[in-house]
Amino acid sequence: MPDNDSSGGAPDTPGYGAWRTAVTVLQEAEPPHIPEGASGMTILVQWPPGDPGTPPHRHTGPAFGYVIEGEVRFELEGEPERVVKAGETFWEPGGDVIHYQDGNARTDAPCRFVVTMLCAPGTPMLTLVDEDELARRAHLRAPRPGS
């Protein structure tokens, strides 16, 4: 962008140059699909110490998250369980993939994270997965720690 733009800003005025270095890319991903007519939603999730989080579920579209505080135990179908710490990001493709864990990885501190997701129209933000489906898809889950 030229130093003298005509957008009404003051790019050459001291104090107006921070925009040039203010952005840090935290994650980039190419989701496999975005549902037609999708709507965007950003939520704040707050788990108390030791909370296991949402039961196994899935989303209709991709979700992108950033951990603000604490540590999140994160597990997607086909991927090993991992801990995402404050300042780190995660994403999931949505669709048919089961999201097994998103709970607080610590028993001594809360965790908070922000998630932006794209949802198919007329569907809930998330759908819980029942025990029968979990059993049918058990072969798709990555080996558990200690197993």
Number of alpha- plus pi-helical segments: 1
Strand order of the largest sheet: 1-8-3-6
Please provide the count of β strands.
9
Distance between the termini: 54 Å
Mean pLDDT: 88
Class of secondary structure makeup: mainly beta
Q: Biggest sheet, open or closed, and with what strands and sense?
A: 4 strands, antiparallel
| Proportion of residues in β-strands | 25-35%
- Helix and strand sequence: EEEEEEEEEH
Describe the global form.
Answer: globular
Low-confidence regions: 1-7
Helix share bin:
under 10%
Described by its quaternary structure, the protein is single chain
Query: If you compute it from the alpha carbons, what radius of gyration comes out, rounded to the nearest whole angstrom?
Result: 19 Å
Describe the structure.
There is one protein chain. The protein is mostly beta strands and 147 residues long. The protein contains 1 helix and 9 strands. The chain has one helix at 131-136; strands at 39-47, 57-58, 63-69, 71-76, 82-85, 89-92, 99-101, 111-119, 127-128. The chain has a 4-stranded antiparallel sheet, with no helix packed on it. It has a 3-stranded antiparallel sheet with strand order 5-4-7, with no helix packed on it. A two-stranded antiparallel sheet has the order 2-9. The radius of gyration is 19 Å and the shape is globular. The protein starts with 38 loop residues before the first strand and ends in an 11-residue tail after the last helix. Mean pLDDT is 88; it is low at 1-7.
